[in-house]
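idk why but the lab printer keeps eating my pages so im just putting this in chat instead. protein + arginine:
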Amino acid sequence: MAQLWGGRFVGETDKLAYKFNASIGFDKRLVEEDIQGSTAHVFMLAKQQILTEEERDSILQGLREIREEVKAGVLEIDDTYEDIHSFVEAVLIKKVGEVGKKLHTGRSRNDQVALDMRLYTRRRVRDTDALLKELLTVILAVMEENLETYMPGFTHLQKAQPTTLAHHYGAYFEMFKRDRQRMADIYQRMNYCPLGAGALAGTTYPLDRECTASMMGFAGPTLNSMDSVSDRDYLIEFLSALSTVMMHLSRFCEEIIIWNSNEYQFVEIDDAYSTGSSIMPQKKNPDIAELVRGKTGRVYGALLSLLTTMKGIPLAYNKDMQEDKELSFDAMDTVESCLVLFTGMLRTMKFRKERMAASAMNGFTNATDAADYLVGKGVPFRDAHGIVGKLVLYCVEKDTSIEKLSLEELQSVSEYFGEDLYKAVSLKTCVEKRLTLGAPGPDAMKHVIEVHRTYLAGDDFGGMFEKSVLQNE
Ligand code: ARG
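predcted complex ->
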């Protein structure tokens, strides 16, 4: 196989070494970005009179054909080439002849791959953001409909205080909103163009790096050519943000699995997102939720792997960095499919509202409110806490709950209890009285929902997505 760098060599590459070194098996997915980068490069070379206009036009024509043929599936990416860059260049030379050999003027594969990876990652950051937005839309719809769907709130997985489904989902809204903010933040920091850095020290040609950067919708060119070819921080940041997305999805899945269990029966996962057992006919398992939870591990793995790969690499480019691709691609694909499936599962999941409310009724979730009631009657909180503790103990012995006790029973524990206690510890009152911003009380929730609506209707990434003049080139 002809290599781009064959000139200096006399001997053949060992077959296994060639295979070991080659990246085309996985970097073929960068074909669109590779063509986009070459297109910008060639435009700029002609503008700087490094290529003639005729040379530019025939190279661009060749690149255009390659793009169309790959898209149409007519041109198959040949796995015998070393990498996608070699493949595109070789096909170009076959198509347009000698002039194709001028494409790589003033460029190295080091700045080329740095650019391709950045363009590709930038697109995936944006795709991930769109999927997160879709998920937030589904979460918000559930919130809007469930301001009065009562359920127990937990600490230590023990019933703690009553809350609502809207409030519980609202916690996940915050998490996935922060995930979107991380996407925007990464996008902004990574959006600088490394093309023109050459192998490591720039080039002797008068390249216009501002021009190529703006053609591809970057905020500007990078400022140090060594860093440009060696930097994979943006990928590490993306993998870290993806790991956080998975951590959030995994926590949500864990709750859904618990809610879907026989003991809880708070929710019913739709048949479309459940599977059965080969032996137990009664089973309907939450496999999709379990798989999303399970796949979190491989995304964390990609982050750890790349951090470790990068930690010992001296400046500038070293082949170790080719290891940035496979695991990153896998992580990006994994998160994308998890987001799509999870959103579908959430959209179709049914709630058993009576069971949720019944569960919130028992387990003394209103004990804090009973203590607050006593405080309202002038009892210091510490004493109120002790009185209600005794009351709970009494209920446990009698296998009953606070609101079921008779007034005499209540008053035998504290004279401060009156008829109005029953209303004060009802689920509705317990929730409605939680009126601080961020709490489940309906007025506080309505305000937050309004904030979320405005947020989702606003510009994605504050409208900073790139406008690449090459998008349809
Ligand atoms: N396949 C390589 C990578 O992914 C492309 C860059 C090759 N550059 C080099 N000097 N060998 O990193």
